[in-house]
Amino acid sequence: MLIWVVLWLLAGLLVAAALAVLALMLATWRIAANAERLVPACGKFVEIDGNRVHYVEEGDGRPIVFVHGLGAQLHHFRHTLFGRFGPGYRLIALDRPGSGYSVRASGATGRLPEQADIVRRFIEELRLERPLVVGHSLGGAIALALATRHPAVISGIALLSPLTHLEASGRQGFDLLYVPSRLLRRVLAYTVAIPLSLRYAQPTLRFIFAPQAVPVDYMISGGGWLGLRPSHYFATSTDVVAVERDLGEIERRYRDIAMPAGILFGTGDQVIGEAVHGEPMLDRIEGLDFERVEGLGHMPQFAEPERVVAFIKRIAPRAFADPH
Asked: What dihedral do alpha carbons 289, 94, 84, 140 form, nearest 10°?
């Protein structure tokens, strides 16, 4: 009799667990469907080595390519900076594969050289003539990888709050995204990750934007809802795991960068510290245009878009005048 009671209890627990997982999967599907309804795809698509890349562009003239950071998407530039440059520039912002509406190729690792190679292939596919590359946060690390691996493809780099150095405490604040197991990453993406992300969205955003306030229209106009989808979580977690494999090697090649380069960094950045990732670059890249902004946080394109546009336009003439 006791064995049967135990078996019934185990069966009940299994059924309860299965129902809980099913509920999480349904909640994830509903949240993701709502995200795609609120922020639909708005650009064009191009196939790059098995990656389906979503991008938007505006204007005519010398090309500027925008590469977003961890867990972000192209609206971080489209919403904040497009429309502010005036004539003479062709602005192109892409969703990095796995982010936004771009689909990452099966088996892709998310490693920095791999992502830099995809940006290079994107530039070639669109027949862009040596664009200036603007990289924010993790996108800054990818721009640096591009500058060290494929310097002939681009004319310069303008970095906003860039990730530049490998830190022992680099995972701090991103512990829930550091999931080395690809299988576990996939399971979490389709069960608990998205409902939890929605639950803690506001404190997470306050941390990212601090000390500035989160823009009231961020979730829709800034594309924030797009991060609440399984594919986006999976790609973001993959990026967190992959970044520490290559950043140290890229660091050792910064002195090889000879193209025009600039960095804009806020001293109030709580996500990536300016003292570690900003100021040391003055000794690593010759002729670096370094702009330090007191009290500015990690999202300068939202907090001070005009300053960011002026910074990029200051780098652009040097970059586009480079004859090499």
From this structure: -20
Nearest alpha carbon to residue 221 among 73, 10, 65, 91: 73
Segment (H or E) for 184: helix 182-189
Query: pTM for this one?
Result: 0.93
| Omega of the bond leading into 211 within 30 degrees of 0 (cis) | yes
For strand 51-58 and strand 44-48, is the pairing parallel, antiparallel, or unpaired? antiparallel
Please write the tens of the pLDDT for every residue from 58-117.
999 999 999 999 999 999 999 999 999 999 999 999 999 999 999 999 888 999 999 999
Residue in 170, 233, 222, 285 with CA at minimum distance from that of residue 39? 222
Strands (E), 49-87: 51-58, 61-67
- Percent of the chain residues topping a pLDDT of 90: 78
Rounded-to-integer distance, Cα 129 and Cα 34, Å: 38
Question: Are 92 and 60 within 8 A, CB to CB?
Answer: no
Of the candidates 259, 257, 254, 264, the one whose C-alpha atom is nearest the C-alpha of residue 313 is 264
Cα dist. 320→131, 259, 317 in Å?
8, 10, 5
Q: Tokens 């604040």 identify what position?
A: 173
The burial of 34, by beta-carbon neighbours within 10 Å (0-12 exposed, 13-18 middle, 19 or more buried), is given as middle
Measuring CA to CA, which residue among 137, 237, 136 is closest to residue 194?
A: 237
| CA-based R_g, the chain, Å | 21
